[in-house]
Amino acid sequence: MTKMEVKQKVEKLLTANSLCPEGREAVQAYLEAYGTADEKGKVEALLKELEEDITSIDDLIAFAGSEHGRQIFGEEKAAAILKAAKEAKEKGEETCICEACQIAKLILANKTALLS
Predict the structure, then answer these.
(1) What are phi and psi of 95, to 5 degrees?
(2) What rounded mean pLDDT belongs to the chain?
(3) Minimal CA–CA distance to 9: which of 115, 109, 106?
(4) Rounded distance between C-alpha atoms, residue 31 and residue 34, angstroms
(5) Out of the domains of life, which is the source (predicted)?
(6) pLDDT digit string (tens) for 83-94?
(7) Residue 51 in contact with residue 15, Cβ under 8 Å?
(8) Out of 15, 70, 84, 107, which residue is the most buried by the measure of CB atoms under 10 Å away?
């Protein structure tokens, strides 16, 4: 991917409901610094935040199947997430299937483009 294509994925990340507040701040800081002398530092901070935030499929399965997960998502949604996560894992997925984690995975896989 080109730097611009990865930047577009970063912009899309802002629309993900599952993006945590710290991730949102890092994305916004990067986008504001894009094309400035501060860009490199903000890219590095963004990548660090995404690496910390991205969730494994096993952690999603554990959370969706937990009492806390059922409290957060509700019984039906937690069951649906758990089923979808198990199916994704069976197909080889290693990362949480939420939109934020999937976009973050793509960004991290193309981080050299952002750092160029």
Answers:
(1) -115, 150
(2) 97
(3) 106
(4) 5
(5) Bacteria
(6) 999 999 999 999
(7) no
(8) 107
